[in-house]
Amino acid sequence: MVRAVITGAGGKMGGRIISLISAMDDIEVIAAVEVTGHPMVGRDIGQVLGLGKTGAIVYDKLADCIDKGDVVIDFTHHVASLSNLQMAAEKKRAIVIGSTGFTRDEMSKVMELATDARCVLAPNMSVGVNVMLKVLEYCAGILGDDYDVEIVEAHHHLKKDAPSGTAMKMAQVLAEKLGRNLDEVGVYERRGMIGARTKKEIGIQTVRAGDIVGEHTVIFGSVGERLEFIHRAHSRDNFAKGAIRAAKWIVNQKNGLYDMQDVLGLKDS
User: What is the pTM of this model?
Assistant: First the structure.
């Protein structure tokens, strides 16, 4: 039985992860974490979420409960996630991080800390999205520079970061396969007399509206035809299920930084 500590328990993702785990036999929520002053703190997380009494109490500090668990599942904020990773490294616990918005310096710190921790970090835990990443890499290798590459992502109007972490991951995968530097060829806005599209650029455009859970479209466009690959998320459950799958996988791995491609065995396929 894998024992999980869930941070950000009061968030939408945290709540869904806890609810889904409650119906599983091979993993359990042993404790949960929320910020100091949150009304959940000190209460049984099962009773808070209407799942019945579980014995898993909500703490306001990860340090107070991390020893209870085998793995931390973290969907909070990139700053908090970095601190939680440091705690996991110190306590020799595994961690799954689904937060986005990490700066370049923060990612360098993540890689440094992961030498002493087992960490899965992915901007999107969906199995479907990660299969799509593999397909995009494969197609880019075939199509090469003969096809223009554009990415359009859409999310709900409350999402704070743009472009989405998933769109950026797609752009990075495509740029690497095409032998390009995303910092040089990424185009995030077009307006006015911008001139003809350059051959190497990769467009990443953002839509924010209503309650869109998440939609990503990648276009390979050439003269006479185009290919479009689309992933639409209809609920957060696919992200939550992927995170749980990653949590059960990472507890048996060696120290290091992994992503969902590793979890799903797609790296060498």
Answer: 0.83
